């Protein structure tokens, strides 16, 4: 099915939708304007639509002309609390920004829905379009899974796909089988001693030096206790202690972001951080409370589905535009929760405008990041093609017999 030509003719509508979304970004799980625009953009298509109860998600199911398996396509919808610093004519002025390109993800998924709906009769099975709010740390995928998105077609999908834009040469896809992105975790340590006068530390139990010790000890732990072939990234981002300069506080706190690439390293880092914090605290006569929160698991691409996706996208876009990446990214994604239950593939799509050097382009989450919306045609075509192939391959096999 030649989705590329069809997709090019949809492009002006998708670009217009993306720019409307970009100018009116919404943060978190409740994105009423975004949801309304999605519903308008899907109007006229033969879709079964369910709206989220605890978030403003849109789940749309397209039933093909014949029975068959289900495939899930996902686009996330939310923006970030970042004040936009681009000079785009459609730049946001409300203090939030689509700095992670989720405005493109929505428009690309709308495009895929139009492309596949036009082939409805050819499809043996169903496509679930998962428009997801709250990806940026709001547990949006978890909420949608709890509300039944994976069973929206009546049976578990046999494949799931999502595409994320990022800086890189325009229109170049990248992914890899296996671990693609890190798991995201939050570490919080509270050290409790006994406060007092800053001139009399011997009469108090000062938690501040212990927390300072933990900052460097955690870095040593990351490099000394973990294999270089299964590394972690641990970044202390929050330190909190005391109000008055002449008072030793009762407590001091530390917060860190921890990225892991495997179940083994996750289990190990939970154990090691607890032992380390409690050990340092007790050496100084203090108490440490360690709270380790697993935010999102590691994003793992199914090996067979991903080899297949690489091959199929190369047929569509050519070898040069579909690259198998060598290393995972230490960023995280809650599509990982879908991929824990459905074999599938998450892909990156380079979207740096042609006038910007991809090597020095601002990254996702920067107030200056730029994504070129001409990639929307490729994004929509790629999603549609992968779903189409899964829902027609058995038909092809039967015909061959
Ligand atoms: Zn994102």
Automatic annotation (TrEMBL):
GO terms for molecular function: metal ion binding; N-acetyldiaminopimelate deacetylase activity. The keyword Hydrolase applies. The Mn(2+) ion enhances activity. GO terms for biological process: diaminopimelate biosynthetic process. Residues 183-278 form the Peptidase M20 dimerisation domain. Keywords: Hydrolase, Manganese, Metal-binding. SUPFAM superfamilies: Bacterial exopeptidase dimerisation domain, Zn-dependent exopeptidases. Its cofactor is Mn(2+). Gene3D superfamilies: 3.30.70.360, Zn peptidases. InterPro entries: Amidohydrolase, Bact_exopeptidase_dim_dom, Peptidase_M20, Peptidase_M20_dimer. Mn(2+) binds at residues 100, 102, 136, 164, 365. This is Putative hydrolase YxeP. It comes from Arthrobacter saudimassiliensis. The gene is yxeP_2.
């Amino acid at each position: 099915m030649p989705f590329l030509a069809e997709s090019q003719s949809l492009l002006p509508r998708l670009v217009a939708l993306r720019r409307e979304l970009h100018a009116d970004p919404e943060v978190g799980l409740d994105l009423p304007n975004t949801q309304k625009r999605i519903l308008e953009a899907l109007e006229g298509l033969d879709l079964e639509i369910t709206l989220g109860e605890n978030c403003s998600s849109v789940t749309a199911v397209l039933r093909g002309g014949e029975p068959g398996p289900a495939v899930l396509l996902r686009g996330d919808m939310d923006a970030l609390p970042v004040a936009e610093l681009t000079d785009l004519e459609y730049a946001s002025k409300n203090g939030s920004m689509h700095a992670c390109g989720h405005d493109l993800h929505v428009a690309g998924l709308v495009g895929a829905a139009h492309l596949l709906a036009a082939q409805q009769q050819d499809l043996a099975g169903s496509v679930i379009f998962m428009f997801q709010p709250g990806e940026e740390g709001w547990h949006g995928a978890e909420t949608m899974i709890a509300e039944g998105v994976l069973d929206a077609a009546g049976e578990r999908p046999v494949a799931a796909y999502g595409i994320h834009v990022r800086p890189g040469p325009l229109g170049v896809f990248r992914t890899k089988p296996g671990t693609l992105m890190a798991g995201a975790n939050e570490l919080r340590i509270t050290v409790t001693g006994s406060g007092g006068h800053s001139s009399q530390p011997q009469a108090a139990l000062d938690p501040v030096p212990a927390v300072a010790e933990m900052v460097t000890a955690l870095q040593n732990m990351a490099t000394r206790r973990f294999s270089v072939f299964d590394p972690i990234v641990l970044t202390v981002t929050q330190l909190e202690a005391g109000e008055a300069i002449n008072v030793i506080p009762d407590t001091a706190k530390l917060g860190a972001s921890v990225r892991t690439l495997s179940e083994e390293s996750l289990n190990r880092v939970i154990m090691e951080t607890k032992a380390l914090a409690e050990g340092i605290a007790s050496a100084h006569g203090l108490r440490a409370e360690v709270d380790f929160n697993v935010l999102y698991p590691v994003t793992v691409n199914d090996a067979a589905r991903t080899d297949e996706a690489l091959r199929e996208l190369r047929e569509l876009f050519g070898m040069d535009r579909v690259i198998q990446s060598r290393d995972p990214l230490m960023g995280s994604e809650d599509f990982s929760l879908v991929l824990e239950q459905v074999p599938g593939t998450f892909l990156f799509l380079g979207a740096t405008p042609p006038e910007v050097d991809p090597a020095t382009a601002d990254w996702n989450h920067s107030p200056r990041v730029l994504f070129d919306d001409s990639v929307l045609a490729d994004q929509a075509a790629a999603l549609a093609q992968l779903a189409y192939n899964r829902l027609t391959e058995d038909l092809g096999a039967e015909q061959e017999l």
